[in-house]
Amino acid sequence: MFLHTSRLQFEAKPAQPDALFARKLQELIGGAWGEMTVTMQYLFQGWNCRMEGKYKDLIMDVATEEIGHVEMLATMVARLLEGAPSEVTAKAVEDPVVAAVVGGMDVQQAIVSGGGPTLSDSNGVPWNGRFIVASGNLMADFRANVAAEAQGRLQTARLYNMTDDPGVRDMLKFNLARDTAHQNMWLAAIEELQEDGLEGPIAPSALFDEEHQEHAGTIWHNSDGTAGPEGRWASGPTPDGTHEFSYLMDPEPLGDKASAPKPDPLLYATSPANLGLIEKAIRKLT
Amino acid sequence: MFLHTSRLQFEAKPAQPDALFARKLQELIGGAWGEMTVTMQYLFQGWNCRMEGKYKDLIMDVATEEIGHVEMLATMVARLLEGAPSEVTAKAVEDPVVAAVVGGMDVQQAIVSGGGPTLSDSNGVPWNGRFIVASGNLMADFRANVAAEAQGRLQTARLYNMTDDPGVRDMLKFNLARDTAHQNMWLAAIEELQEDGLEGPIAPSALFDEEHQEHAGTIWHNSDGTAGPEGRWASGPTPDGTHEFSYLMDPEPLGDKASAPKPDPLLYATSPANLGLIEKAIRKLT
Amino acid sequence: MFLHTSRLQFEAKPAQPDALFARKLQELIGGAWGEMTVTMQYLFQGWNCRMEGKYKDLIMDVATEEIGHVEMLATMVARLLEGAPSEVTAKAVEDPVVAAVVGGMDVQQAIVSGGGPTLSDSNGVPWNGRFIVASGNLMADFRANVAAEAQGRLQTARLYNMTDDPGVRDMLKFNLARDTAHQNMWLAAIEELQEDGLEGPIAPSALFDEEHQEHAGTIWHNSDGTAGPEGRWASGPTPDGTHEFSYLMDPEPLGDKASAPKPDPLLYATSPANLGLIEKAIRKLT
Amino acid sequence: MFLHTSRLQFEAKPAQPDALFARKLQELIGGAWGEMTVTMQYLFQGWNCRMEGKYKDLIMDVATEEIGHVEMLATMVARLLEGAPSEVTAKAVEDPVVAAVVGGMDVQQAIVSGGGPTLSDSNGVPWNGRFIVASGNLMADFRANVAAEAQGRLQTARLYNMTDDPGVRDMLKFNLARDTAHQNMWLAAIEELQEDGLEGPIAPSALFDEEHQEHAGTIWHNSDGTAGPEGRWASGPTPDGTHEFSYLMDPEPLGDKASAPKPDPLLYATSPANLGLIEKAIRKLT
Amino acid sequence: MFLHTSRLQFEAKPAQPDALFARKLQELIGGAWGEMTVTMQYLFQGWNCRMEGKYKDLIMDVATEEIGHVEMLATMVARLLEGAPSEVTAKAVEDPVVAAVVGGMDVQQAIVSGGGPTLSDSNGVPWNGRFIVASGNLMADFRANVAAEAQGRLQTARLYNMTDDPGVRDMLKFNLARDTAHQNMWLAAIEELQEDGLEGPIAPSALFDEEHQEHAGTIWHNSDGTAGPEGRWASGPTPDGTHEFSYLMDPEPLGDKASAPKPDPLLYATSPANLGLIEKAIRKLT
Amino acid sequence: MFLHTSRLQFEAKPAQPDALFARKLQELIGGAWGEMTVTMQYLFQGWNCRMEGKYKDLIMDVATEEIGHVEMLATMVARLLEGAPSEVTAKAVEDPVVAAVVGGMDVQQAIVSGGGPTLSDSNGVPWNGRFIVASGNLMADFRANVAAEAQGRLQTARLYNMTDDPGVRDMLKFNLARDTAHQNMWLAAIEELQEDGLEGPIAPSALFDEEHQEHAGTIWHNSDGTAGPEGRWASGPTPDGTHEFSYLMDPEPLGDKASAPKPDPLLYATSPANLGLIEKAIRKLT
């Protein structure tokens, strides 16, 4: 069960409105790598965690924090939209800056939300539930979490450069710091999973015997760039210590020709079996 | 530019058809973490790479390989569907196994594709372009790549247990091995990015000074589980070596009350300014 | 079966083109609360109505009218786009107003539709079938209909303020009036359902005995705002007359700890059962 | 900012697993009218509320409760999936009941979530952000809230009949009660908005003068069912008291013929202007 | 403006219910190539048609008919669902046929629609507005219309084989005939467009001079299958009579190496410019 | 299996950056009719082709070429974005042209992709797998392919007029030529299918006897435009030679009244059976 306090985790007060930036911030609310994604990803991972204790408790701590990040951004967007043009375009446009704003603002923030955020990204595409993963395998999920925090911090950094509003920047500095903390935290959790002997570096830590081991260390050279083999992935031990890397320079297909089976006549695929039948069918009608 | 050979990268021959499994394999084709995702993610990362050389060439090598994985799975699905029930249900159902198949098969594989795969996941939801990321920042993207290969291998492993067809398993053993190779490869590439001095462990490697550093190492205890602080993320240096972890046990909000600004009258939000006006508006009409 | 007359239900003639407003009008065509939604919602409700007579006939009357609203808007959009910039940007831009238009217009209206509407909202997101509901329960559906007409009229009102074109406003005045009529109509239908003894105010009018009645009148105070209990929902009889409202000021969870069951080993969740196995698996390989 | 306790708002303990029902419950998690929708709808309404006090505080109380409903359902789904078939179909199928389960279960709950819920509906379609509305106009939004609670209770009632598991039913009885409470609560809030003079019954309470009043009380008879005029929406005062209802029995279109403007040659619409040009273009080439 | 009669264009009476087939029929309602698609595609084409007269009038005739096809299918689905299992699974399952039905039916038809259709395809994915096109160019659009009628008839034919219910088949025989009529009709309209001199066979009939003509007749041999050049597309005049076909057997790329431009430092792409900076940034912090 | 060369199929070098055009080009990458669609449509058609030989080999040749078209466009977009405004709006805006660019550019190309393309259309909506079809019936699929190439060439032609950059136009001239070649090619393949006796002009070439033939040649006059019967689709033989066209001027519905069956009480539809029960249920509670 959840409880809420009306105070924000961190301040979200712009020095002045900026409707164009309000649109851009939507990416951090409802983008594929935004706060909504980490909120729901962590909540579902916590609820799906099969082991009581430190991992689950950590996940729920962070998940609960993230709801508050959506709240900060939603509040910031509403404040950035104060006084945004909501009237006749010609009246609203006075100089190129206003023109850029009128052209670039998210019109649904006005028409649909009355000057507030939507649950969409910066192009107005709604957030959706396929953006999250909660597989039950903590190694696989924590790798996804590091990725999410990395993409999230990267987008925040780009947005940071797109504003010089001290209030907005103040909040983004907090967001940047939290993304740093969370990247470090998930990296530490990945180390700990291995130290605890719960997971190896490769997810899932199973079926290594069954897999075709001769293909578990090779990189296939399917493109003609020549520098691929210069990296440490071209030779030497793999990071998990189980194989030697090698670079397969002239890859040959190992399978037969791709072909689909004989068609089911009830499904009407084109096939040699049709020969003559069509003509007959048409002739019969005429 | 691309070239194609009709032979498959690896064999994709089931010992016998299995329409229910053909539906499940759709997850590896068009699921959020399926082969289509890694194909397009790597292609766009390669095209978006801002540095010629080993990283870009590696990405394009792997991307090009992955198109062939979609091909293997598409071929396997068509073969697993050979002879799948395409007629009246009552005729098709003879025993519980067939009933399960008739109930559980993906009907669009018959109705839409005529016994072949669709570009959808195992619940028939189409693949979409938001599943990929190609940010230009290789550290952020390689983290996403490790995550994708980890989730992909995990799903492949689960599917491996859901069949005992030796032909299907043979192909999945190849897929498992490639996912192992690629996880190791992206992990190695992450190490190399750091050794080359191109990126630090935290993406992006910028704005560390600007971010609010006092919040860059703390974990907020927003949920009442007590074991969170038992992990190595609760104290000691962060993995990137820049901060000390600490666990904030009684987190207090740092911001003011969340509130939205005064409404724009042209947007008709409910507000105290409406007091009396409504009644007047209605009275006037009647 | 349907018939069509080429004349519009109401005039849709702008005084002059306005490409930016043509984009905004997309919200009323293909937005979640636009005319397409009410068209399809009412059609499916009519077809799904389990009772011949006045309710079903009313629904079909209104549904059929709504198709004509999509038609009016589609025509208006095409006319507003007459002469919209379809050439090189630099040529098209002469002053800030044009710049705003060039920046803010829906480029798909030109590239995809050749100067006509798409079936999308004002951010270009396509309309989709999950926006409608036709549950068969008329009380639940009429409540959804009032909501749809209310949001629709609200959006129309906002758009009305964003133009001063007399022709556009003339059409919007008709739309506003129809939304007023339809809100009143669905409200009247809700009253009538109750007067007819077909439904009570709470949908569905069943399972009241079975539900946990001690929880059917309380509002849980899960956020720290203090004014919640000042409303009439905090005490006194509920609108349906079956319970007394009360405000639960210090809510305590009634359930146990949330936990997920023991993992299935074939699904590879992280669990204490993994302890030692991973290390062994990796050791075996090397 | 939010806080979390590990205990569930209400108990979520099935007497025994039921993988087919676990799929059906997805509707209440990620369906268009499920708990995720009300959670996010109320949160965004609260953050977008332009008036401090009882309405905003109420919204935030209920919003915060709803996150806990998603949690209850997510936990229930994971428990219902305990022991669900995750192996070879032929082994898993023993009798028709198992066949129905194997055919009907949500395969992504196994393949993607490892025996837990996804953020999707009962057909596996992901939840998306367009399902919510937070317009800032409380009358319009509360009408949407009543609708959501009504559809939600209706779906819960249907699901209640699809199980006889006492543990599942126990939780659903709580959900039913909460949906009853919340329907009553939003109905009371709608009354209060009017009593407080903040909104009239028709949203928004504006532009009544401007709208074409002669069309604000008529129902158009566009379908040939004859019983439409038998309802109270056919005559007498409208519920908001501003107009008289009337039924327009032989509706005539009021507008001109629908037509699109002359095409822009740069957009290549088919038009009489093409006459002869095409032939010339082709002749020139050959 | 539209009018409606309560009678169906053709009869839609199944001999008996069949919940599994009711799910399959969803493909014809809300699938990408279903009746909803042609309805909306033709309506928008008619509204977007830039030339009064026979083409526009034809489009509107057919569009209006198609709404009635959705109606027939919606009615059929509701009737096929009569008596569908809506209770406890174990009670509902008696033999393998029922098991297949319980496993394979669309659960949302019960939970959401109360025994009626949804606006989704046979996997429950909602119809969406990107399935239609109305470009204003009649040649391009009529080609899309032939394609839609062809795919639609193909799916109908497949469904025809999946039932032996005489009532369902009776309706499908009508649908098949209409799809035949409409394929022929659009083919005739394509001929007429050319005879009228309005469009050539290639859409749009413009820019032939500007395009690089040396590439307007070649087929590139990018895959290693050897039979491609055996078709009439390998030599001889093109169907539009403007070029000679040829098969380019050893295609060479004509462009330079694909490369992305130098990165913008404010966007944090990985680049050689990062060398040394990262280390410095991290060192400074510690 | 696929191979890749780093050189582009054709040059993709803009004379200078143009961020607004970079957004528009997204339509050709990830639009419903863009290069991604033909790439995946042809690949899946090739893999699903049930007949070895010239048709399959042709499809795979073209499919493989199309991946390279996505590559050209992705490269072009990245180059057009060089130097695009990525900083504070006010700094970036200097004149109306820049304002139009700042307002109209795709902000996700900066925030998400760091100055590169996304897999979305020109409004930022992600590409999705439902845009493709691979039915196994080559006649139906080739008709879809002609349609795709026609819409694709039309959009390319429109975009050609929106730029005067010689480098961009040079690439578009190649694209136009390829779309011409491919339209001709699929038209030739449609002829060949018929000459080979594999398919007739109407897809599928089956069930002509079974369909209700009296409805296979009529056009229903459901809209009141009078010119429909002036076309060659109103009389004379159908293009496939099997029927005579006729125009049904006063169409009468052939079916009974649309009605839904009696409701299942467990699904709570509103019905006369509710009469009195509701009142009793409520009275009991109070």
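qc> Residues 59 and 220 of chain B are 37 Å apart (CA to CA).
qc> done
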